[in-house]
Structures are given as structure tokens and as C-alpha cells.
Design brief:
189 residues; globular
Length: 189
């Protein structure tokens, strides 16, 4: 899958939303990429996962891990494509943690996946969990990179597609100033 195909899928599935959105990062935007609307289709999720798996053909990967909620389906599908374990992290009392009996052994090589990356905050939290468990992060992959600046995760970062969507700090948001009602579609409360 190339970037054009990925973006076409978002348009076809009405997964590129317009309005006034508060992103998980706290930033505001007039557009929101709802990956759940494309990953709900197993054939599309599988194609995305296989495209991601092909980005790391020479790496030995022991597990794939992503943050809940956006990274759960993707981590599972990429893990399936690589024939390794698929884990996810989730927030507990506002802190990203590894739960449900999931464990990472020292030296295990992990690929961190995310549906959409804006600031990389959740992804960095997942990287910290892998490292604190003694695991080694070999790379970060997202379906969509919507970051406005280059993010340094300390490992290779690859996305299937990059899209430029303007974001605003709350106090500088023209949508807030225009009194346009805001929606918070992300997973953070």
C-alpha cells in the first residue's frame, strides 16, 4: 500500500472528519483522522499491517506493541503478519501501563505501532514502558503521520502516509474564537 492508497481509503470510508476537534495531545484541529473507521474492516487492517511488516524485513522482532485504543487492532494485525506476540498498553489513573498479564522480557525486540501520530506523546510512553521492562525498541510505525515537526523517537520512524493538518494550542485556536462547538473523539478522557 502506498501513501495515495492509504489516503484514498480514509476518504472513501469517511474517516477524515471535519469540524472542531480536541485531539488526545490537547491540541485543537479542524480535521480528525478516525482510524477506527478503516481498521474496522479486517481486509483493510490486514493490508495496512502487511505493509507495515514489510518496512522491517531484516529486523528480528519478538513482539508488537501499541497504545490503547488506537494501537490495539493495529498491534494485533502487525503481530499476526510478523507471526509474533501483539501487546497493548493502556492508561490506568492517567498513566500508561502494561496490564492484563502482559510482560516484556529483557532483550525482547519490540516494534511500536500507532494508528495516528500527532505529537508522539503516547508513542513515547509506550517506548518508555518497553525500555523499563528491559526490552529493545527496534522501530516505530504509524498508519498516518500528522505531526507538524519531525519527531525523534531514537529509533527509525516510518509511516504509511503523511498528511499535513493544522493544529492549534487551545488559547490560539481560531475555531474556539469563532465559537464552533468542539468534539473530543480521541480515547483520552
Amino acid at each position: 500500500m502506498n501513501e495515495k492508497e492509504i489516503l484514498e481509503i480514509f476518504h472513501e470510508r469517511h474517516a477524515l472528519l471535519s469540524g472542531h476537534f480536541k485531539l488526545s495531545s490537547g491540541l485543537h484541529s479542524q480535521n480528525y483522522l478516525q482510524c477506527a473507521l478503516i481498521l474496522q474492516y479486517p481486509d483493510i487492517a490486514e493490508k495496512c499491517a502487511k505493509a507495515i511488516a514489510k518496512k522491517f524485513p531484516k529486523e528480528k522482532i519478538d513482539l508488537v506493541i501499541g497504545p490503547a485504543l488506537g494501537g490495539v487492532t493495529l498491534a494485533y494485525e502487525v503481530a499476526r503478519a510478523l507471526k509474533v506476540r501483539g501487546l497493548f498498553t493502556e492508561r490506568q489513573d492517567g498513566v500508561m501501563v502494561l496490564r492484563r498479564g502482559f510482560a516484556i522480557s529483557p532483550g525482547e525486540k519490540a516494534l511500536v505501532v500507532e494508528d495516528v501520530i500527532t505529537t508522539g506523546g503516547s508513542t513515547k510512553e509506550v517506548i518508555d514502558i518497553v525500555k523499563s521492562s528491559g526490552g529493545v525498541v527496534v522501530g516505530v510505525v504509524s498508519v498516518i503521520d500528522r505531526s507538524s515537526a519531525e519527531i525523534n523517537f531514537g529509533v527509525p520512524f516510518i509511516s504509511l502516509a503523511k498528511i499535513k493538518i493544522e493544529t492549534y494550542k487551545e488559547g490560539e485556536c481560531p475555531l474556539c474564537k469563532a465559537n464552533i462547538p468542539i468534539t473530543k473523539p480521541g480515547s483520552r478522557a
